Amino acid sequence: SGSYAYTETPGDVQLKDFTIAHDLEYRVPLIRAAIETTRGDLKIFASPWSPPAWMKTNNNMLEGGVVKPEYLDAWARYYVRFIGEYEKAGVPIWGLTVQNEPMSVQRWESCIFTGEDEREFVKNHLGPTLVKSGCAGVKLMIWDHNRGIMYQRAKAVYDDPEAAKYVWGMGFHWYVGDHFDNVRLVHDSYPDKGLIFTEGTPASFNASRLDDWRWGEIYAVSMFNDLNNWANGWVDWNILLDERGGPNHVGNFCIAPIIGDTKTGELTYMNSYYYIGHFSRFIRPGARRIICSSNNDRLLSTAFINPGGDIAVVVMNRGEREMEFKTWLDGRAVQAVSPAHSIITVRIPAEGE
């Protein structure tokens, strides 16, 4: 973990010194191993946190700042160069966000874009540059911040057709309130645009609380509500952290579904790992959400039909007591028991399976 740019040379607008050598040591090999493990069925999106310090008004990759107007073109070409270098290294980039958390001045890498700034950057710089460079197929996502004002940020960009034409959809996070209805409002207003939950970690690291059962339920509540409100995908943050919740160069130690002890080699799989697995294992890429209506407030549910025709119904019991329930489909029912504070998946095979 550290703060670095792909070109540290002040004024390098032609990106002559651009290099991903830092990433080739650990990051790229990890991603390539993940791609190999999934037999290539893995979509990678990139999220810039800060331009190089010399491009910014505060001359610092940390603590906010904005891109200087004279560097907006170079910053747009920086994205394209990144995509090209990663593809050369065997990591195709499926998607791209404009800026991680663009309204947050942080002690870590950050950069401020208002809704109007983001619209103009996409319309006049990033969008055209992606198209001219043959990267029009990369899925460009705006916002990449909390649900609270995601509708307002969507409106700022999508109501301008010259900006909206470059944008595939919107990324969003879960901090500072739930605001699940806002996900649906964005979809209802702009149904042709995608929605992906791009980041969420439930708490700062505390080794004494890793066994708390609530972590899995926190993840699942968000996944149920986001998916049921038209999200196309859901991404955790992070996949693996060490025994301190790091590494992190500014001390932002977090919780992840897997904690690895770098001294002993031991891996701790938190309950959140298994809760997430009920979605990621049974709801396959390309699945389509179908209506799933629960008649009990203690049972959260969602259902998807997979490309192979089988149906996955994920059900979570947040209550303090066991509950019997039935999953009905076309006049037939599957009976099941949901223990207190549990998550289960009912899989209905495809016809003829």
Task: Outline the structure in words.
This protein starts with 20 loop residues before the first helix and ends in a 5-residue tail after the last strand. The chain is globular, with a radius of gyration of 21 Å. The protein folds into 2 domains: 269 residues, TIM Barrel (Alpha-Beta Barrel), CATH 3.20.20.80; 64 residues, Sandwich (Immunoglobulin-like). The chain is α/β, with parallel strands linked by helices and 353 residues long. α5 runs parallel beside α7 and α8 runs parallel beside α9. 28% of the residues lie in helices and 20% in strands. It has a 6-stranded parallel sheet. A 4-stranded antiparallel sheet has the order 10-11-12-15, covered by helices on one side. The chain has a 3-stranded mixed sheet with strand order 7-8-9.
In short:
This protein is of the alpha/beta class. It is built from 9 helices and 15 strands.
Which properties best describe this structure?
28% helix, Immunoglobulin-like, four-stranded antiparallel sheet, six-stranded parallel sheet, 353 residues, alpha/beta, 2 domains, 9 helices, TIM Barrel
Mean pLDDT: 97
CATH topology of the largest domain: TIM Barrel
Strand order of the largest sheet: 1-2-3-4-5-6
Number of strands: 15
Provide the CATH top-level class of the largest domain: Alpha Beta
User: Could you name the ranges where pLDDT drops below 50 across 5 or more consecutive residues?
Assistant: none
CATH architecture of the largest domain: Alpha-Beta Barrel
Compressed to H and E, one letter per element, the order equals: HHEHEHEHHEHEHEEEEHEEEEEE
Q: How many separate structural domains? A: 2
Tell me the structural class.
Answer: alpha/beta
Rg, nearest Å = 21 Å
Give the strand content. 15-25%
Helix content: 25-40%
Overall geometry: globular
Give a quick account of the main beta sheet: strands, pairing sense, barrel closure. Answer: 6 strands, parallel
CATH homologous superfamily placement of the largest domain: Glycosidases
